[in-house]
Design a protein that fits this description.
This protein is mostly helical and about 160 residues long. It has 5 helices and no strands. The chain has one domain.
Amino acid sequence: MKPSLIHAAVVHFPIALLICGSLAMLGYIHRWPRAELRIIGWGLLLPGWLTVLAAIFSGLVAQGGLSPDAPFRPILNWHTGSGLALAVLYADLLYRGWLHWMRTKRAKMGDSAAPGNILDEGSGKWRLTVQLLLGIGLVILSGWLGGHLVYFYGVGVH
């Protein structure tokens, strides 16, 4: 199977998972503070991040067969860079969520005062909002650039 076909099959998962997970988290933070939205948000972001890594890896393998002086190379570089930025942005979000979860777990065992939910904390709330909106924007940008590569230049098709 061609690497470009694997990349084309994988890229749709992070788009759906990250956008839906981010929207669920934003809904929890700003409109409906229900436990279900928090669980859905965190539950979609981890597989979304893992599929971003799979998309990055399959995309890097697929671009190995492309000409280094092709006219679409600048767009491809932006597409790759936005994918890497997505991986870093959501890795930071998941890591901070995991650290907060570990502190909460220790606090329940009696180590210290229990911290609140990371999504409910005032100062962290706006940082998370900006990070989630930036993540949605990067998903859209990366997807648009990938679509431009395929439908305008025929990358991975011809």
